[in-house]
Write the structure tokens for this entry.
Amino acid sequence: MKKVLILGAGLVSRPMVRYLLERGVEVTVASRTLSKAEALIQGHPLGRAFPWTVDNQGALEMLVEWADVVVSLLPYAYHLQVAKTCLKHRKHLVTTSYVKPEMAALDREAREKDLIFLNEIGLDPGIDHMSAMKLMEGIRKRGGRITSFRSYCGALPAPEAADNPLKYKFGWSPRGVLLAGRNSARFLENGNVVEVPGEKLFTYHRGIDVEGVGELEYYPNRDSLPYMKLYGIEDARTMFRGTLRYPGWSKLWAVLSSAGFLSEEKKQGGVSRAEYTASVLKTSPKEVEKTLREEYGAGDQEMEKIEWMGLLSGEKIPEEEISPIDLLEKLLWARMQYRRGERDMDVLLHQIEAEFPGGKREKHTSLLVDFGIYGQETSIAQTVSLPAAIGVKMILDGKITRRGVMIPVYKEIYEPALEELEEMGISFQEKAEVI
């Protein structure tokens, strides 16, 4: 019987666990919180839950040795530990995370050991890569050359559930959302390379109207340039990958980021939140609002949101020491969770321009708008873990011939994966127009 180890029992894990169990795969879910793993297994005869923390390398060795494929749904900081353990025991690995240089450096050894280390097979990254490759393949078959590639993705509350001042709720790790706000970005715009340092990430944002959704905004998502080679569009003049949010998000986080609220440096706790905020801003509690407005550009809307977040309250912080990002995580998680029955929404939009022989130019758009229901199955859980689950099953069935560290930009992966996702109702609307 085929055996899969899933590390992590977080918000997006359930669809993968159910997918594999229903297809006759033996699944072990290892998690710091045993009850979460047990809730995913739901007493299935092919499933088992195992209590495990990342500092227990001995248990990890045992678990990895048991499995045919290991899935790491842990925070990306732990993927390297898992990957090296997989190399030691010659086991395949799947993650939904971006390939860091440390992971890419394992490519040669993975190839030598006949292993597949399949990464970036979630939603973004994941379905975005696969759907883009399919769209561009169709253009190339007609003799087209890609001149501009723009892609935007966001996991958001459905419009009716966007009922707090930030118009956002957490469908995945709150810390992951906050840490992503520190990433630098790089992209190509009309032949010019644009570099955005992490502390300035949210200052580069633009509005975009998405059919069926309405007005959103976007800001750049990490380094877009490496994907030009991976996508085979090295001669394109524009290459941009962006993150979608409701309007107002970027301006707020531009203030908070520049003011130091995404820092992991611990500061003295045991004081009121307002006093703690003053210490982050290096000012007095009486001068907090003035400092936020005059030094960091906060307007009335940003001040209202910061107050709603609880950063200006007189409530005492119980921890003796805590970092600003840790405090934000606690405050936002308490205020920005989905209520049972509310819908979340994933939006993924590609805009691709191409030139054809004879000078004709076309613009192609491909749009996914997917909804889930909290308490049943969220869209973010389905769109992140189902592509990974399909990838796991393809590895188990011997359907992926490539070896080494990879992402799903190869036809042998993306074509069957997209077909199966479409059967599950995760599909794109595509349009083309002459420009």
